[in-house]
Design brief:
The complex is a heterodimer. Chain A is mainly alpha-helical. Chain A is built from 3 helices and no strands. In chain B, strands 3-2-1-4-5 form a 5-stranded parallel beta sheet. Classes of the chains: A mainly alpha, B alpha/beta.
Chain lengths: 77, 150
Amino acid sequence: MVRLPKTEFEFIDHTIEDGYYADRDEFIRAAVRLLIHDVSKRKLSEAKRNVKKIPHDELLQTVKESRKEVYQQVWDD
Amino acid sequence: MIKAYLDTNIFLTYLNVETSNSELVIELADQGAYTAVISFHTTNELMHNIKSRYPKNVAGWMFAFIWSIHGIQFVQKEEIDALKGLYSDLITDMDDVPHIHAYFARECDYFVTTDRRLMEMKINEKVNFKNPKSFLRIIGVDGHDTADGI
């Protein structure tokens, strides 16, 4: 159950009538997804600013190492 | 619609480089310019890598960010296992196999990676590898001039 002003429910119902969403649940799920995306993007931008960058070749090397380890964890059991 | 498998290094380059074509590749997926595909294995690798280099919570935010990308598809372990052995003679490193199989499992059009080593493997006869810059051109975006198109 979500509490919203009547006008906002009217707006949601218009988007449903226009075929953008199947029902109120779908509208609200999409809105939640967008908010999570927005906040996580901002958090990652902060992390980008605060972390020391490494050369791309070094990045690829760390990816390769983690790829080996994760592969062993998942498939070598 | 174009379907592209995004390698783990696309997301790590996005975090590691201030302005990159990898970032544009992710943003265009979010705008619905193409369908992005990753696998459960990509998220495993990302979490493993990010936890070792970044402060607490960044891995969680990355997971939330990826999960909420518009229309993104996740290839499951069972789909990858179902292709066991396929083209294994063309893939140099065993640990790259799950990503190649995930690409085939969802019948992707492109495999976007910043790793030249992958593009030079024999499997490039079967897999349409693109660096981020080349992939952006395919979807009509110029992108940034960066070393190796990252």
